Amino acid sequence: RYKGPRLSDQRSTIVIMTIKLRIFYLAPLLLASCVQTTRRPEKMKMDCYKDVKGTIYDYEALAINGKERIQFKQYAGKHVLFVNVATYCGLTIQYPELNALQEELKPLGLVVLGFPCNQFGKQEPGENLEILPGLKYVRPGGGYLPNFQLFAKGDVNGEKEQKIFTFLKHACPHPSEIVVSNKHIYWEPIKVHDIRWNFEKFLVGPNGVPVMRWFHQAPISTVKADIMMYLKQFKTK
What we know:
CATH superfamily: Glutaredoxin
Mean pLDDT: 88
Number of strands: 8
Number of domains: 1
Structural class: alpha/beta
CATH architecture: 3-Layer(aba) Sandwich
CATH class: Alpha Beta
Low-confidence stretches: none
Helix content: 25-40%
């Protein structure tokens, strides 16, 4: 006999309603901040420093489920692409492209890792449990689910930045001297190597050392071409 909706269904409904309310109240801010800067930098990519000390294997991060701490040493021998992501950004269209990149280059040892962040135009306003439903039903929507590991929402710049991003930023110069408008960024202090916007990317080699860094406006097609060129050196070994 029917006894009403299951608790899991009720929770899902509450999460979706919460997401819709957030979008309604934050829409003006999100739309305005998506504009940020349209000026393109002179370079889309920069190689990382050759004398980097340490590796990503010295660090770990909390998975999006909030329960599991993932140590990056489990990716030893892999080519790892770190991406700071956001659900309600003009660049959120890169999510499906990242899925395709992961699917195509996984046989070559590529692993994509996503790190939700709310420091750029407040475009990741939800709690951790709201992020996956937001991606599935809102943006990109259409039932989208990432095929790569997402981590708990956190800072990538400023006093509370995640340690892995402190390491990555110090290892790689930024491709652009452009800094977005102060009204769209939410951290202090501001430093020269800071991430400028959602969907910047860092590639780390199979030895755990950062290799290259991309500006957020770099198309995924460009990122893919750069990675493929980089991977050629491993085919001859």
